[in-house]
Fold this sequence. Notes:
34% helix
Amino acid sequence: xxxxxxxxxxxxxxxxxxxxxxxxxxxxxxxxxxxxxxxxxxxxxxxxxxxxxxxxxxxxxxxxxxxxxxxxxxxxxxxxxxxxxxxxxxxx
Length: 92
């Protein structure tokens, strides 16, 4: 039985470590992109480890907050347009 890969967007505002960990798990069978909205990314060890794995797996991670220096910045309007491309959107 083949699994059709789903395109999933994860919107992160709160529970950042949990959202990144869940995104990594979903990426095993799906295409997952992460959108960090409004907030600054916390710099805990757990988050930094997840962020490193996200980059190693070449997952998309974007932010509308220019304070997040190591994440690709795109405007809120561009994020809204991109979200139309996803079959599933998971808010955190």
